[in-house]
Amino acid sequence: MENNKLLPQIFIDKMKTILPEHLSLQDFVNSCHQPLRRAIRVNTLKISIEDFKKRATEHNWKLTPIPWCCEGFWIAIENEITPLGNSFEHLAGLFYIQEASSMMPVAALFHFLEATPQTTLLDAAAAPGSKTTQIAAKMDNQGLIIANEFSSSRIKMLHANIQRCGIKNVALTHFDAKVFGSWLPHTFDAILLDAPCSGEGTIRKDKSAMKNWKQQAIDDISLIQKGLIESAFHALKVGGILVYSTCTLSHEENQDVCHFLKNSFPDSIEFLDLNNLFPDANKTRTKEGFLHIWPQVYDSEGFFVAALRKTAKSNPELAKKRLGRLPFIRPTRQKESELYDYFKRQFGITHIDGMLYQRDKEFWLFPDNIKPLMNQIRFSRLGIKIAEEFGNVRKNGFKTQHEFITAFEKQASKNIIELDASQAKAYYQGKDIRGLETEGASGEVLVSYRGQVISLGKALNNRLKNNLPRELIRDNNLFEF
Question: Which domain covers residue 150, as residue numbers?
Fold first, then answer.
């Protein structure tokens, strides 16, 4: 076997035993040594696909459609000077950098799920947020997504990506996902379990992915996956859809996990066939209707996707929960009216969906569907913080929060200050903008570039005070203009 320096021979020998007969082992090995094509997904909460294509043409970005995701594109950039992640379009949340195969689980979920504003969905292993943000766009920011992440170090990144993409229908939790079956049985209309795995399919973007590959590690992690999928099954409503996915190739972490669940609940699970998910899906379809994606077939990462339907009620062992008191109250009708009148007066925003709650001087907007769950589980972050109240004897008022603007900026019609390219670049560097004609705007304003709101600012005579959150400031190598 030639050209196998990144892959242990014991791994290649194993893959030979499970590779479908119509595929070549040498092609598999060769593909693993090829660089992975970059891919992006357009965030339709902020921009249409057609408008994004026009921007891509201006940048000389070459886009190639991804068959299983109408918002997804492979992207090629010649003479790249500014990193793609520092482009204005990325900073403004117009697209998400996401591997093409990674878009397939959400595509599979919505192939079977008809989402409504009443849909409640669990993303059981959500960080860094690629699939959570994809789900939110598919749901048009309606309904409720519980985005759970076990790793505390990844929660901050998850929240940052949700905020950048202008999402308001998410509540964050921080648990081992095995708790959901016993804590919230029969709760979710759909669940995405993109399970932690050995990552055998990621070698094209991570050359060290297979450095310490061992069969024992595969066996160990498959036990974890079985616990997770069983819990997810219990948390699902009857008739609900469960999509299980990994970025690995071994059967122990993929087909075997699904069969474990089917064997455990033979009369309550239906495997759903993904053969019609997209043209050529049959090239990676398994006999069960799963998709086992070998990297050479679609020139992508190695991946696995299965879709299941729960057909009968299950009986999990319920667990006792220790919940702290939720530190939020409903504001008075007068206070709610004052806040919404301020948004209307200052920005022209008139329709604010969701439930308004208050914590001390902070105002938070919760998704409507969260109400039955508010006293059922502990949240790391619930909804979006939209304003803070300030005041003393002489003055009182509200300070709008960045999250509110990212989620509702499309409704804004007043106090919008448009920057040119050099000013926008300076603004992302955290600088105030001086000598700017504010056209009579005063107080809090929306800062925009090319018709896309960047953030909040404060108009002070001929100076625009920078209110961009510190974590969004970029010091160098920003977008060209």
Answer: 9-310
